[in-house]
Amino acid sequence: MERLQKVIARAGLASRRKAEQLILDGKVQVNGQTVKELGTKVSNNDKVTVNGVPIDKEPLVYYLFYKPTGVISSVKDDRNRTTVVDFFKHVPERIFPVGRLDYDTSGALLLTNDGELANRLMHPSFEFDKTYIANVTPIPTNDQLRQLAMGIRLEDGMTAKARVQLLASDKEKKTASVQMTIHEGRNRQVRRMFSALHLHVRKLKRERYGFLSLNGLHPGESRELKPHEVKTLMHNTRST
């Protein structure tokens, strides 16, 4: 579900502020009923008209992007740094990232203009798995790996249980590759979990977003999701 004024603005009829005024003026109808509440939310199935004219909704699109490091997970940046949407100038739809990856983290990021699905994917109740590969130093002990799996107490509370596996280690360099799968989406969560155990993350990559992997993609590349992948995302986030 998305706010009505956002749907109107995205259709290109008016700015967000102007769309709010159209609603307050009683010029917007949803499924034939005039709506004057700014908090009203609509779904993709609702028929929205402005002054009696149906708005043209953008076709819904879905992309899996291999975000490079040094790129902002945002639509725009006030410091004019490169953002993920800069890689999609060929896409006519106004897409946005689902969630965020840190500036210095690479990996799988979903971009879409489907606000309803994006909100469901980011809602913690659906426990959507994200799998990361972290290069850390020093090499974590078995006890530290166990603590990561059971949960780490951070300043914003205890983390949920995770799946953790030591993939490789280099005793000379005192580094290790650790795979971690979490379903929460706290800010810089993986880095903070390692840091709490005095482990420094040298490099971090999100290898998988749910069942979607980066196979066949290089940093800066993307692909459209296949219809069955979109259906699976919708099914996996469907309210019971």
UniProtKB/TrEMBL annotation:
This is Pseudouridine synthase. GO terms for biological process: enzyme-directed rRNA pseudouridine synthesis. Residues 2-59 form the RNA-binding S4 domain. GO terms for molecular function: RNA binding; rRNA pseudouridine synthase activity. InterPro entries: PsdUridine_s_RsuA/RluB/E/F_cat, PsdUridine_synth_cat_dom_sf, PsdUridine_synth_RsuA/RluA, PsdUridine_synth_RsuA/RluB/E/F, PsdUridine_synth_RsuA/RluB_CS, RsuA_PseudoU_synthase, S4_RNA-bd, S4_RNA-bd_sf. Keywords: Isomerase, RNA-binding. It comes from the Bacteria. CDD domains: PseudoU_synth_RsuA_like, S4. Belongs to the pseudouridine synthase RsuA family. The keyword Nucleotidyltransferase does not apply. One of its GO terms (cellular component) is cytosol. Its EC number is 5.4.99.-. PROSITE patterns: PSI_RSU, S4. PANTHER family: PSEUDOURIDINE SYNTHASE FAMILY PROTEIN-RELATED, RNA-BINDING S4 DOMAIN-CONTAINING PROTEIN. The keyword RNA-binding applies. It comes from Sporolactobacillus laevolacticus DSM 442.
